[in-house]
Design goal:
With about 80 residues, the protein is an all-alpha fold. Helices cover about 85% and strands about 0% of the residues. Helix 1 runs antiparallel to helix 2 and helix 3 crosses helix 4.
Length: about 80
């Protein structure tokens, strides 16, 4: 039960961040893409992989950021061992 609630909360927060990113994409206050990337990283949905592939094709910055994320994730896993 706890895992289901945790997954639901992560999805709600992720969708909220995506919506905030879309709004800030039209307003000159903050950069919207930051919130969209954070939101996509939080959600757990079957179409998440397709969204990541689409962003990787469209954005060079996203490719660099995702490569940096996976490098850091590998380093942290090695340190835990």
């Amino acid at each position: 039960m706890k895992q289901g609630v945790k997954r639901l909360l992560k999805n709600i927060v992720g969708l909220f961040l995506i919506l905030v990113g879309i709004v800030f994409g039209f307003l000159p206050i903050l950069q919207g893409w930051v919130f969209i990337i954070l939101g996509l990283s939080m959600i757990e949905h079957p179409w998440k992989h397709a969204a990541h592939q689409w962003l990787a094709r469209k954005s060079r910055f996203y490719r660099l950021a995702s490569a940096m994320y996976f490098r850091t994730k590998r380093r942290m896993a090695r340190r835990k061992q």
